[in-house]
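Technical note accompanying the year-one report. For the benefit of new consortium partners, we illustrate the data format agreed upon in the data management plan: each record pairs a sequence with a structure-token string. No post-processing was applied to the example shown here.
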Amino acid sequence: MKVIHLISGGDTGGAKTHVHSLLQGLNQHIQADMVCFTDGPFTQEARALGIHVEVMAGRNPLAALKPLRERIAREGYDIIHCHGARGNLMGALLKRSTGLPVVTTVHSDPRLDYMGRPLSALTYGSLNAWALRRIPYHIGVSHAMGDLLISRGFDPQQMFAIYNGIDFTPRAPRLSRREFLSSLGLDWPDDAVIAGIAARLNPVKDMGTLLRGFAAAHAVQPQLRLIIAGEGQDEAMLKGLAQELGVAGEVCFAGWLSDTDSFYAALDINTLTSLSETFPYALTEGARFALPTVASAVGGVPFLIQDHVTGLLFQPRDHQALGRHLAALAGDPALRRRLGEQLLDKGRTEFSIESTIRRQLSIYETILRRQKRRRERRRDGVVICGAYGRGNAGDEAILKALVTELRSIDPDLPLWVMTRKPRATRLRHRVGAVYTFHAPAFCLKMARSALYINGGGSLVQDVTSHRSLWFYLFTLSAARRLGCKVMMYGCGIGPIRAPRNRRKTGRVIDRSVDVITTRDSASIDELKTLGVSRPQVILAADPAVTLPSAPPQAAEALLEEIGLHPRKGERYLGVTVRPWPGFEEKAPAFAAAVDYAYQRYDLIPVFIPIEGRPDAAAAQKVAAQLQHAPAHLLPSCPSSELAIALSARMDVALSMRLHALIFAAVCRVPLVGVVYDPKVSAFLDDAGQDLYVQLDQVTPELLRALLDAAAQRRQDRGALEDKTARLIQLERNNSTAAAQLLAQDPGGAP
């Protein structure tokens, strides 16, 4: 493989380090050449690293087009890789004439690249915006940068992420801590706790917030000191601010430092206060020295700095929160050590230069594979329809699992989701998205796709709405007429009560659908009563049973935010309730049961909403009637992965919501179900879970008895393990059936 990189050549900071490290590593595996449009330190350093560099300097960027086309044709490059405004412009202009795939790495927010420079923003910024829209493939130097671009309309399925990796091989600093401080003219005491930052002194880095937060922390922890390493336009202002805050004697402005190893080795705390970031090298450099880190929660920062796990986060400009974090770290050596060690472990695993190179090579291979696929296929991809984009964690869990399984079948398979919130769906699931009821848009996608999936959940029912049933039936028949294979994926069928609806449903499904996988055996029985005979019907399970969990530390951090102390061995009762006819009159019974679990088993209730506001309102009704137990309510619906991690942290679950019960089941947590809909009892029966009661039969006495039985099952995790394994095995029938359908279609996956 041969790749040509196009870059201005005047780049500094993280972009320079990234490109130099990247090309140096790539050339150990492929041929990666560089063309720069400016000569200077950037090109000199690249040559010193053994990178082949050609300079095409000149004021007129268009003058380089012809020699670039000639070089590309002569050398036989496979991919054009661009960096920055000048590189992007040239790549966009070369795309058609060369016929090569063009990809750009976006190192920073394009709208902030020329902050404070209005003329450059008008010229280079405008040209860059034009070019970015014409380059088909984009790489963000963090998932957050990818999210930013997707939110601005860029294709999520042509978006990649690659992090700024570094060499984590241990190396001794040139100077000891005492020697380094002396080189700066500092005579700080040996017990000083030194915080530091290495960054440009410009408005985006927001050093003013750092100084204000440091001043607040120093008032509490007088042993705290601060070193600011860097130069820039804000230097004079910042020095004045330090004087104004009365901390000038405890703050050192070190200027630009070449010996960054000695700088980081001298610190006790690493800091970052930026208003905008992609993924700064300062964080991975600090991680290499196992430094506990306090950082603003912007851009890609949270992907490395996980709050209270690998560091501490605060919202941009919140100097008070920053001050509290600095004070906490300054006064707790054990906390500094724990956070620093966990950060080093994460950095070594996920953010090494080796992982960056592997990721970049994988991106190149994917781009070449997709280019070839687009030339060869007339019909390709999958359209997915379901109850998505409504803020329900259960439905989003289904979609997450469905997308993951389809990607495992074919990682290059184009996916389009019909959703109430296309922008949110694109961001969350990295798929194409159209508005659920925009018929021309989704019909166009169907006409170009190989497979249509009616995806998960109880879509085919008329209890909640006749119109929704008719809509889903319309999409099934439309997909068939437009040439798609049609599958109903891990779905629940019914109840369908109206005779007319039953006749119509049976007729449409029988005529339009190729394969049906159901999430429970009751749905198979319902299909038979509807007269469905032509499609293949397979028992499976809800797709959500295969979802991975968020890290346990993430769940613990969330529990701590609502006043709990999971690291002290507390035990919890997970409670999920929802509004439903008859619920309000049963709320006192729920409250009595929760009080009982607290008094009898020391189970602290944690109310976990699956559908944001409705579930939170129902939880409030129960919490308001508690007599003994404290009420701990999550204010909003967590992500599917976090909801699973929370479920795993519970000792017993009491739930009305189907997916709260599913999450508890897959986490081997004893559960008590309250059935408001046949789908709940259907799942519990198939999952071998017998502790449930119909909503209209709920009494305090019955819930207490069920909780007693669930509490006894905490000791028998082996039986729960067996039930979970069966569910996961059944769920594989969903993806197996989808793979077979895609293989049958000449335009589908091979």
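Partners are asked to follow this layout when depositing records. DSSP finds 29 helices and 26 strands in the chain.
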